[in-house]
Design a protein that fits this description.
Elements: E1 6-10, H1 15-26, E2 30-35, H2 40-45, E3 50-53, H3 59-71, E4 78-81, H4 96-119, E5 127-134, H5 145-164, E6 170-177, H6 193-202, H7 206-216, E7 223-226, H8 231-243
This protein binds NADP nicotinamide-adenine-dinucleotide phosphate.
Length: about 260
């Protein structure tokens, strides 16, 4: 069903991006993979894939890539803007450098594609731009503030664009991902075991996630919530947070150097 398409995927060295690369390659699609570093093992396993070494944090590198693809008439019909990172930036103290790196990757790493694509003359067939956002946009982890705020801003941008460009050749879509079994930082050591167990129980495998994203990419729906079973979990967390101040909010420890509440 997804064969014959051309797709560009960012961040294919692991996790969801790698599963997407495998999915589209298996279906006979023409795949352009965008990674910030060369991954020889991946490149030799998928000789039909065009590998581009581009750091999505660089607007210049992304713009040059779009220009090269446009000039060679190889601009794909589907962009899956998946590359992302997560890290602790708000624990003992707020760490601006770490926060900035997360926002540069998760938010600007997507936005860098949007300016050149919206500047192109309209194409005859639809061009789909799928951002991989997160359910953390709704209930974020306070220790990873860059992650939550970058995904929330990404979701706002795609909400706006999906409405503004409705009916045009540019189709803006986003995936509100819940937990997926990947190596992205989960901060398991900071939460009680029961919380980690629940998260694991609700997690989806990367291959199933890739299939769901590929099917979604055939529609014009603006949003996909996946895995659906994780939605009540996030809703519950949101409810607990609203009712119990302090629940899943993070607290400063009460040792000698602790900040006292006033
Ligand atoms: N897993 C989850 O539970 C979950 C939940 C909600 C949303 N998501 C989102 O899903 C997406 C994929 O995450 P994942 O779970 O598959 O994590 P992952 O396995 O860590 O994959 C992240 C990918 O992004 C790449 N990347 C990072 N910085 C980059 C940069 N500056 N330029 C180009 N590529 C870069 C990584 O490459 P390197 O190998 O070079 O680091 C890697 O290929 C992310 O946007 C994430 O926020 C994941």
């Amino acid at each position: 069903m997804t064969s014959g398409r051309s797709v560009l995927i960012t961040g294919t060295s692991s996790g969801v991006g790698r599963a997407l690369l495998e999915h589209y390659t298996r279906n006979g699609s023409k795949v352009i993979s965008v990674n910030r570093r060369r991954v020889p093992e991946l490149e030799s396993a998928y000789p039909s894939v065009r590998f581009e070494c581009v750091d999505v944090r660089s607007d210049e590198e992304v713009e040059m890539l779009i220009q090269r693809l446009t000039e060679s008439a190889e601009l794909p019909e589907l962009f899956i803007l998946n590359a992302g990172i997560n890290c602790v930036d708000n624990d003992e103290s707020f760490q601006l450098a770490a926060y900035r790196e997360v926002v540069d990757t998760n938010l600007f790493g997507v936005l860098h594609f949007i300016q050149p694509l919206t500047e192109l003359p309209p194409s005859e067939s639809p061009r789909r731009l799928i951002a991989i956002s997160s359910l953390a946009s709704y209930v974020g982890n306070p220790y990873g503030l860059g992650y939550t705020t970058s995904k929330r801003a990404l979701t706002e941008c795609f909400d706006a664009w999906s409405k503004m460009y409705r009916g045009t050749d540019l189709v803006f879509q986003q995936v509100m991902l819940g937990p997926v079994d990947t190596a992205i930082y989960t901060m398991a050591d900071r939460f009680p075991t029961w919380m980690v167990r629940i998260k694991n129980a609700f997690s989806a495998p990367p291959a199933a996630t890739a299939r769901a994203i590929a099917l979604f990419g055939l529609t014009r729906r603006p949003k996909l919530f996946y895995p659906w079973r994780a939605v009540p979990l996030y809703l519950g967390m949101w409810l607990f947070r609203s009712l119990l101040p302090g629940f899943f909010q993070g607290r400063k420890t009460l040792d000698g150097r602790a900040r006292r509440s006033t």
